[in-house]
Amino acid sequence: MSPESVAELVKAARAASEYAYAPYSHFRVGAAVRDEHGRVHIGCNVENASYGLTICAERNAVAAMVAAGGTRIVEMALYTPTEKPVTPCGACRQVIAEFGRGATIVLACAGGEPVFSKTEELLPLAFVLD
Ligand code: THU
C-alpha cells in the first residue's frame, strides 16, 4: 500500500466514523475499502434498539462496494477514535475473506501509528468456496 493510498483510505474511514449511528455502545467505527477499479467505498457501524441487528462498519463498506459493482477488496482501512487500533470482529473477518483474499488491511486509530495486516493473518484457514 502506498503512503498516499493509506492516507486516503484512513481519511475516508475516519470521516465515515463520524456518521456512525452508535447510540447504544457510543463506539464509533469507520471503514473504507478500495476495490479492483481503484474506487473507495465507505461504511460506518449502524446500531439498532434490537441490539443484534447492529451492522458493523466493515460489512457496510463491503456492501457499498458490491452495490457499486466492485467485486474485490484490494485494500481496506478501519478507523476508531481510540488510543490503540481495533481489529475487525469475527463476522467481519469472514465477510472480508469472501471478497478480499490477499488484501492489506490498515488498522488506524486516534492515538498512534496504524498497524498493517492481511486478510489471511486476520482469518487463517477461512471458509471460502472457489
Ligand atoms: N463494531 C464494528 O463496527 N466493527 C467491528 O469489527 C467491531 C464492532 C461496532 C459494532 C457496535 O456498533 C460497536 O462497534 C460496539 O461493538
Folded structure, characterized:
- The protein is of the alpha+beta class and 130 residues long.
- The chain contains 4 helices and 5 strands.
- Strands 2-1-3-4-5 form a 5-stranded mixed beta sheet.
- Helix 3 links the parallel strand 3 and strand 4.
- The protein starts with a helix and ends in an 8-residue tail after the last helix.
- The structure holds tetrahydrodeoxyuridine.
- The site of tetrahydrodeoxyuridine has 13 residues, from helix 2.
Q: Layout of helices and strands, plus pairs?
A:
Layout: H1 3-17, E1 30-35, E2 40-44, H2 57-67, E3 73-80, H3 90-99, E4 104-109, E5 115-118, H4 119-122
Parallel strand pairs: 3-4
Antiparallel strand pairs: 1-2, 1-3, 4-5
Bound molecules: tetrahydrodeoxyuridine.
